[in-house]
């Protein structure tokens, strides 16, 4: 086969284009959105709320922080809900630190994060940052996380913790440790 024939062969065409000229990535993304939303909507409402709260904490999150910011009516159900979410492959648990969890799929994390209304997101970011500030005290390793959460609700505190996190990075000199 000539090179001209190979370029026209279906396996060598632009993989983002289907036969009708439509964008496969866009169609796939819509299907993936629907799949994630369908799975999410099939969860009990209380578990949906926990998963949305976890998504605000971050792609990787601590169950201690999640427990600390959940409303009282959800705290007693958190342990069973986490087992359910692990079994359904929404989350993975860190084997070395059992309080750390991670969303199984970054795309699902992002969709769930975006499902949370903006005003509720800001409220949760504040609750998360306040909880971390209260429980971690002067733990400098948490300053970047505090800055991240406060930037969604309190820009003055976000800037304060950003500066502190930067000072800490420069102090421990880890930013420049790239194999001499």
What can you see in these coordinates?
- The protein has ten helices and three strands.
- Helix content is 63%, strand content 6%.
- Helix 3 packs across helix 7 (106-115).
- The longest helix has 19 residues, at 118-136.
- Strand 2 and strand 3 form a beta hairpin.
- By secondary structure, the chain is mostly helical.
- Mean pLDDT is 83; it is low at 1-21.
- The protein has a three-stranded antiparallel sheet.
Number of DSSP strands? 3
Strand order of the largest sheet: 1-3-2
User: Roughly how many Å apart are the termini?
Assistant: 52 Å
Give the helix/strand class: mainly alpha
Strand content: 5-15%
Helix amount, in percent?
A: 55-70%
Shape: globular
Overall pLDDT, averaged? 83
Largest sheet: number of strands, sense, barrel closure: 3 strands, antiparallel
Give me the number of helical elements: 10
Radius of gyration: 21 Å
């Amino acid at each position: 086969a000539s090179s001209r024939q190979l370029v026209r062969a279906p396996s060598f065409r632009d993989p983002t284009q289907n036969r009708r000229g439509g964008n496969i990535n866009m169609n796939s993304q819509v299907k993936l959105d629907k799949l994630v939303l369908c799975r999410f909507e099939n969860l009990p409402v209380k578990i949906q709320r926990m998963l949305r709260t976890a998504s605000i904490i971050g792609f990787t999150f601590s169950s201690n922080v999640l427990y600390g910011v959940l409303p009282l009516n959800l705290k007693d159900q958190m342990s069973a809900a986490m087992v359910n979410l692990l079994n359904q492959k929404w989350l993975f648990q860190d084997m070395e630190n059992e309080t750390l969890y991670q969303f199984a799929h970054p795309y699902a994390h992002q969709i769930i994060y975006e499902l949370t209304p903006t005003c509720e997101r800001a409220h949760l970011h504040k609750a998360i940052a306040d909880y971390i500030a209260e429980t971690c005290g002067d733990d400098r390793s948490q300053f970047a996380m505090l800055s991240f959460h406060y930037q969604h609700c309190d820009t003055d505190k976000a800037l304060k913790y950003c500066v502190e996190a930067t000072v800490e990075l420069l102090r421990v000199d880890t930013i420049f440790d790239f194999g001499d």
